[in-house]
Structure formats: structure tokens, C-alpha cells
Amino acid sequence: MPTANLRKAQPIVRDYCASLGVDYVECGLLESWGQALRHLHEVGRPLREVRP
What we know:
The chain is mainly α. Helix content is 71%, strand content 0%. It is built from 3 helices and no strands.
């Protein structure tokens, strides 16, 4: 989504999350990248395990 529209989308997304009972969290660019990388690291753990 173009950056200029993010502020317009925030209340829509916040309301939608509330209607679903899903937590809405805001964070900056670097924190969001960190969250994504931590998630990918966690879900990739089984692929990194040594198999006999």
C-alpha cells in the first residue's frame, strides 16, 4: 500500500481487528522486519535440525 494511504487505512484495519477480536499492534519498520525474521527463524527450525 502506498505510504500516503497508511494513515487512512489505520482506523479501518483497527476497527476490523476489533470486530474479529484480534489484537492490533503498531510498530516501526525495523521492529516489523525483526518480527518477521524471528517468525521465519522459528518456523524454519525443523529444517535446521540434524537428522541421523
